[in-house]
Amino acid sequence: MEVQTFVTDDDTWVPAVDFTDQKDSLLLGTVSFPLPSFLTADGALRLVESADRLIAWATSLKVRGLARVEEAIGEESPRRQENQPTRFGGHEAHALAVTEVATTSAVSEGASARSLNEAADFTTSRWQVLEAIEAGEISSAHARIIQNLARSLPDEPAETFINMALQRVRTRHGRRRAPSELRACLRRLHESLDPESPTARKAAAHRERGVWFSPEPDGMCTLSAYLSAEAGLAIFNGLDHDARVTSLRAAESEAQPGAGAGAGADSRTLSELRADALVQRLLGPSDGADAGAFRPEVVVTIPVELALASDAASAATAATAELEGYGPIDAATARRLAALAPGWQRVFTDYATGQALGVGRTAYRPPMALRRYLHNRDGTCRFPGCTRRATACEPDHSIEWQDGGATDADNLAMLCRRHHALKSVGAWAYKHASPTGELKWCSPLGRTYSTDPASIGRALHTPKPPKPPPF
Question: Do the beta carbons of residue 22 and residue 96 sit within 8 Å?
Fold first, then answer.
């Protein structure tokens, strides 16, 4: 994107943005706007309003493009192997559209699927909402609230709801409501138009319950759950009770006669205490002395030099430890987990290449040692953008076994079931591009992507073969 500057009649600098930054871009022309540094406060707010208008128009254009992607893929019948059974419940065009959009836009397949489903709705039964976005009357956040509430209504009440909802985006005085304000306003309208009973709606929502794990920086994570209100409130109240009891006991201990300064003091907040109570309820004390409600398996890949490091300097020069499903962890945590582990599993690899020895054509299924190597090398499913853990994936022969492919590391890759199916039907294809595990993928529309192996246990230096013994 090129930005050129010119002077208008009133000597105000204005940048002209020319959308010619990408070779294959379909954007043509320019957009001009005042340079923000020359604007008054009111002028800057008008610029914000203008930018929102441009974003709304671009959003509607993107929605129409997303809807056309799936439609066109269904019409064009992308390549597939004829001897393969129909996958994805007969919705292969949708599955291919999801992967094409996800890889092109660098978003998760879940986000891609939601975007495609919303686009299909907006361009068919919800066209009034899309037109309101295009006209700049509502934002995408307003549209998503209207869409989500309308989705649970039958066709006729849904159409009535949408028409009335669009009128309620603004108050009687013309002020546009904030998204959270609009949601609260539309819930009452939704209740009045919904023919289903609250019991039936709760049963439908109950089928969406789940628990999700999301890695966060600095060795932390977010563990979220979507539960029934009564179950979630009971769990929270129980954790809150544990936290307050712990806090009260610490305060009583500190107030005991003769207690030294700081004795019994607990600086943790109630929020921290609730988090610690959850961990202790489920996993038991952190020292591993007593078992909690369950003891799930936690897989940590720890290079030998890190596990045996005796000081911080030695640990700093060792290879990084990895917590499966999360990523790199600090040396102290890795050694503590190693000490608590009932046993270790070793992965033996070639010293010079770092690869596990394969079994060639002698066996179709990789042996356990080779599987462990693939889990460590790949880390996740090797499809572009997929983060499903390798231990939950299946080993795939890049050159199929029936076509002469070998059961060796340089012909295997870990793929989740969904992406294994896409590769098996011949829609997506890949090949090994290097001995270290780099893969080159080609989509049904001919777009190419590369995926690299994980850096689990990778040393900070290139290992050298041992010197031959002197004669």
Answer: no
Which residue's entry shows tokens 């996740």? 380
Determine the Cα–Cα distance for residues 276 and 268; give it in Å rounded to an integer. 10
Summarised one tens digit per residue, pLDDT across range 258-275 is 665 555 567 889 999 999
Between CA 360 and CA 369 the distance in angstroms is 14
pTM: 0.70
Tens digits of residue pLDDT in 356-407: 556 677 777 888 878 888 888 888 999 999 988 888 899 999 998 888 888 8
pLDDT band at 471 (very low <50, low <70, confident <90, very high): very low
Distance from chain centroid for Cα 44: 35
Centre a 10 Å sphere on the Cβ of residue 415 and count the other Cβ atoms it contains.
27
- Would you say 128 and 146 are in contact if contact means Cβ atoms under 8 Å apart? no
CA distances, 356 to each of 209, 301, 304, 407 (Å): 41, 16, 17, 11
Provide DSSP, 377-418: HH-B--STT---BGGGSEEEESS-GGGT--SSGGGEEEE-HH
Q: Report residue 356 as tokens.
A: 């596990």
Edge-first strand listing for the sheet containing 321-323: 300-301, 321-323, 327-329
Per the CB < 8 A criterion, the answer to whether 426 and 81 are in contact is: yes
Cα 465–Cα 468–Cα 471 angle in degrees, nearest 5:
175
Q: What is the pLDDT of residues 181-199, one digit of tens each?
A: 999 889 888 888 887 777 7
Q: Which residues contact 50 (CB under 8 A, 6 or more apart)?
A: 33
Distance separating alpha carbons of residues 249 and 429, to the nearest angstrom: 62
- Tell me phi and psi for residue 99, to 5 degrees: -70, -40
pLDDT over 80 (residue 114): yes
- Given a contact cutoff of 8 angstroms between Cβ atoms, the answer to whether 300 and 330 are in contact is no
Residue with tokens 């299946």: 394
Pairwise CA distance, residues 316 & 309, whole Å: 9
Contact 368, 346 (CB under 8 A): no
SS3 107: coil
3-state class (DSSP) for residue 108:
coil
What is the average per-residue pLDDT within 317-345? 72
